[in-house]
Here is the input.
Amino acid sequence: DQQVKQNSPSLSVQEGRISILNCDYTNSMFDYFLWYKKYPAEGPTFLISISSIKDKNEDGRFTVFLNKSAKHLSLHIVPSQPGDSAVYFCAASGGSNYKLTFGKGTLLTVNP
Amino acid sequence: NAGVTQTPKFQVLKTGQSMTLQCAQDMNHEYMSWYRQDPGMGLRLIHYSVGAGITDQGEVPNGYNVSRSTTEDFPLRLLSAAPSQTSVYFCASSYSGVTNQPQHFGDGTRLSIL
Here is the structure.
């Protein structure tokens, strides 16, 4: 049973436009959410996170929105740049500070 | 500052062989973890440790052993490799857990079991 779902395996956007990556979760115990970015042949790197007590967190070009009633979060990248092309993983934690559940990832391609 | 270092980067094993994947961090992090990533899948937690001498199981622990004798090192052992363990393995560390302090990942070990 997949508790964190990223239903879009890939997304292609033009440079300068907005990229919106979506993530849904099923476990009501999840209370902390993170986005990681991964380039080929490298390990994931942390991008941004949000606690369930908030509905929005912003860091430069990156904003994460959380809709707890819908069990949905999204990552907005504005403006998108070619260097943003990577796989983006949504991850969630709840009940334990020691376990993360990852989604399958979305491959973002930003075209010049 | 090297961060999280994984060795080797690539390895090919035969079924039944044993192997240890090495992971070392130089950030004095208490929390360390091992994940595997399979094609079309997200990262899945194998084992984790909250400090020297303390380890616990993650989502997919079967076939793997770990130990934590020092803060810096967290090796992952495959006692009898199986083709189903063909995967990319990532080690990660953080100060005290997975929330509020994001994990730092190594660049992975690509393991093929024939």
